[in-house]
Amino acid sequence: LNTGIIYFQTSSSDVPNFPEFVAVGYVDDVQMGHYDSNTRRAVPKKDWIKDAVGEDYVEGLTARGRKHQLRFKAHLENLNQRFNQSGGVHTYQQMHGCDWDDETGEVNGYNQYGYDGEDFLSLNLKEQIWIAAKQQAFITKLNWDNDKAMMSHCKYFYTQECPENLKKIVNAGRSFMMRTDLPSIQLLQRTPSSPVTCHATGFYPRYAVMFWRKDQEEEVLEGVDHEEMLPNHDGSFQMSVDLNISLIRAEDWSRYDCVFQIKGVEEDLTVTLDKSVILSNWRKSDGGERLMMMCGIVLIHLCSQSHQNSQIYQTSDSSSFTLGNYQ
């Protein structure tokens, strides 16, 4: 079974109501901690994570976060000049971490940088060289390739320190991370002519699929739209899949059902397409006016938009190495 730590760090300029520097770290789908330029402190998100790495390590992350905050700001300003830019919204990002196969013991490390949402520089750990994705990154590649101390530190971090921390955290949080939470599933619809949305929320882990099925055997592909899986505030996940009912005769509705499958659970969770169970802002129930679900559908849409916007600012709580200077 593969598991991994991933760190994101982002330095940005001229972004309203957003810290100039943010760092977060994840083990698989679980956020470990957070640092930003407003709080200037590394904060573990789970007590068992702090217990696994120790208080001294957390304090070390705070110190590293403050150093990286200054360094990333300087790098961002340097890149503005290198790309002949001044003012406006710009971002400089790092994504790095390691994966560990607990069966084979194989460890893989990676480190990538981006500027304004595009690839800039990446590490080939096996060959111990940097790969420039932009012409403007080539001078940095040459400098970092020649920095043997930096490359040695990279190798140590990604092959020893990172996987050792990963193993500690996984062992400490095994019961939390290896759990399986099943979702609540509802059918939603905005108007009588709108697609019917099958919405599942509260499940964990994220290794799940959901689809529409006909006659309990055939997956429906035509008229189906899969929405992006989104995280909930409590660490669980939600997902939706829409079915265009205009393609289905009314007498055939009962032949369709929404199917949810999650890793570690053999039995499928299913909900049959039935007008009587659809939650909507236009339908009345037998007991009177049904609680309107329009706000829920809108909230799903807003969450999706927020999640998409957040991709611009992926961030990290890094126990990363000391970065080399841009020259």
UniProtKB/TrEMBL annotation:
Task: Enumerate the InterPro entries for this protein.
Answer: Ig-like_dom, Ig-like_dom_sf, Ig-like_fold, Ig_C1-set, MHC_class-I_related, MHC_I-like_Ag-recog, MHC_I-like_Ag-recog_sf, MHC_I/II-like_Ag-recog
- The Ig-like domain is annotated at 183-272
The answer to keyword Ligase applying to this record is: no
Q: Which UniProt keywords apply?
A: Glycoprotein
Q: Does the keyword Glycoprotein apply?
A: yes
An example GO CC term for this entry is: external side of plasma membrane
Which GO terms of type biological process are on file? Answer: immune response
Q: State the Pfam families in the record.
A: C1-set (PF07654), MHC_I (PF00129)
Q: Where are the transmembrane segments?
A: none
What does the similarity note say?
A: Belongs to the MHC class I family.
Name used for this protein in its record? Ig-like domain-containing protein
**Where does this protein come from, organism-wise?**
Gouania willdenowi
Give the taxonomic lineage as stored in the record: Eukaryota, Metazoa, Chordata, Craniata, Vertebrata
